[in-house]
Fold this sequence. Notes:
Elements: H1 8-13, H2 16-21, H3 76-94, H4 102-105, H5 108-146, E1 155-158, E2 166-170, H6 180-207, E3 221-223, H7 226-235, E4 244-246, H8 252-267, H9 275-284, H10 287-305, H11 307-310, H12 314-323, H13 339-348, H14 351-355, E5 361-362
Antiparallel strand pairs: 1-2, 3-4, 3-5
Amino acid sequence: MSSEEPSSGEQAKLPAAQRAEQSPSTPPAPPLPVAIASPPAIGVTPAAVPRGEPDYSHLPELKLSDLHFRPQRRRLLPLLLFVGTCASTFWVGCTHWRPLEHPFLSSYAAMWEVISANWLTGVQYMVAVLAILLTHEMGHFLQTVKHRIAASYPLCIPIPFNAIGTMGAVIGMDGMRADRRQIFDIGIAGPLAGLVVAVPVFWWGISDLDLSHRPRADEIQLYLPWIGQWMLAAAHPEWTGRDWIGLSQLNPCFMAGWVGMLITGLNMLPISQLDGGHTIYALFLDRAHTLARWFVSLSIFYILVHINDAVMWTPMLVLVILMGIHHPPTANDNVPLGPVRWAIGLASLVIPLLCFPLQGVRQ
């Protein structure tokens, strides 16, 4: 039995949905699109901004790449300072650490003569001292990269008119972003890395010393730090007890090693924002302020007692006091250091005693 379709009149009387079901020849209407609500992109506000609310629609959209740490570091300035320090240390080495002697500066011909006669000494001193300085600063720099603290490339400081040829090197960093553990790592890494190079260079220089003749009465002399005195006793037992080394007795490696010890010992003094200041604050936090005040008091007393030999440290001490002897808090002082860092930090407190030449330079 076949089914009968309703007539057109009857079909018109049916509801629209039922007519659609009974009309196979008519294709079904496509479904209407459904709008799915989604949150607006970061930095983009909806078209309708509530009254009184700020409109941020003009700002660029925040992207995932914006969240990555990519500090913008200057390259030209560190490169120029490095080249300048190479030139100044080379010149100082060529003049046997007497860069302002009149015979060397009387004319360009005289300058060329001293360079051509002593260029090997200049190169040896330049390479040795810059190896120590850059290793020290790269220790700091690599730790800032590890901990994602914005920092500059190492900046060498050329000084062509003193017996060293440089005032060391520095890096600039955003230390306020570092927590207790990070500031410890950054502070201690430089001196430890520098000593890895400075100790063998100093030993090499002391081994090559010739102290068979005494320094002249008007000659500049360098005081041996404790580690240098121990090395001299081991390398030359017959000269044990010699605390002062004259410029005429020097060799390039000795001078570079002595500079490395000076810079390392100076930076590890437990005060202000020196490397030692970072280390001592990370270890003892607010108690480090008491240690810094004791250190300043003892330093003033030492300079007064040894006024003839230690007076050269007075401007440096005054500068540190003006900068502030207390280390500021870190981004998070509650981060624990752990036993390994504590052991390294406590052992590092003897570095100034071993490396710093207490009586400096005399003439």
